[in-house]
Records
---
Amino acid sequence: MNRRIRRHRRAGAALVAAAALLLVGCSNEGFAEQYAADSEQGYVAGDGSWEVIPPADRQAPVEYSGEDEHGETLGSEQFAGDVVVMNFWYAACPPCRLEAADLEQTHQDYQDEGVQFVGVNVYDQAPTALSFAEEFGVTYPSILDVETASVRLAFSDNVPPQAIPSTLVIDRDGAVAAVIRGVADPSVLASMIDTVLEESSE
């Protein structure tokens, strides 16, 4: 039995038991106020919930764009047609640091299968993001969203401001297919990716 099948079976039961979470929208001002208030605590934490969204229930594809820590423009246009794993984070967030190695390993596991990984850094400037990537061995880029919050706003229905870290799986059409609010368990994330890859090949 290969690694992918074993991993899928381990997480399958957990995915079936996932409960839907109420989705919350926020204004740009709301984002700014929430991050300012929670920054004094050191980080803003997701609640640990997650969900898989059936294709028929997914919202419209999300358009987004921003500059990464290398000065390159990244967004929905560049990732069109690919499955995308999007992780919202920042460097001083303890849970973000905790999950970094697992996210990078999952990125390595899927990089030859048409799955793109991209971070969305909600707080830091480029030097801090680059230092984090070097420290934790992260090789995928992150959009720097601190100035405009435009990517957070684009995904605010799925990632409210208190849910950092959060990780999304975006299908090939650009719609959000799965959400993890809090530290991403690698087996759960892998099963989510497998599910979206399988439906994409049907």
Note: The beta strands are 50-52, 65-67, 73-75, 83-89, 115-121, 142-144, 166-170, 176-181.
---
Amino acid sequence: MITLTAARPRRGENIVPMINVAFLLLIFFLMTAVIAPSDPVRVTPPEAGGDVEAGEDVRIFVEADGTIWQGGSPVAVLDDVAGATVLLGADRSLDGARLAQILTELRRAGARDVKLVVAPS
């Protein structure tokens, strides 16, 4: 004797494992992300063409009024640049004579290479 049973409605797909994987990936990316410190002052860099990016050893920022920042605080004398590559972020409204003076100071302090930070045009 053959008995017929009613077909049970099919259940939807279980998405819990996919949600678990998504959360695990989110946690992984949050734990391995590198958070860079913010710049001590906001400067508006000049514009330039090209795609050259600089490697950095020492970061120095110069405000529009000529104040020099190194290591997160204003400095009067540039130090710790001997033999280093200097990444120089200068405000676009900085006087050219003051920029030339800072570049001369960096050369005297022994900077190996100075790279000026610019905004893409």
Note: The mean pLDDT is 83.
